[in-house]
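Input record (one chain):
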Amino acid sequence: MGIRGGTVYHRVDDENNRIINITQEDHVFYNGIAIRSVVEEGGRIYINTFGEGVNRPQSELLPNRVSWALNYATAGPGFHSLDHNIHLDVLSRSRDGLAVLARERQMMEVGRRR
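The corresponding structure, as predicted from the sequence alone:
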């Protein structure tokens, strides 16, 4: 679960398998954009993320370096759970994908027993 930073407009681009996130004026990192694309290569699913913005929070109390560090530190964890949900959704659509999910569950169980 990510940190709630404000409103983000989401545009789904089904044709290109991507979502475009645009921060709104009440967002801590307003005037930023993140484009997240689902890519399949060699039977594996990847999420490519491209983002840019002014990296300037609404609060003047945060200097640019602190703002950048906060954005950098929260982006990964914020997107991790979303990526996991995409992974599950894509794999659950086919018999082969369901087999991959079953193997992943087995590996997790083995890891927990150790």
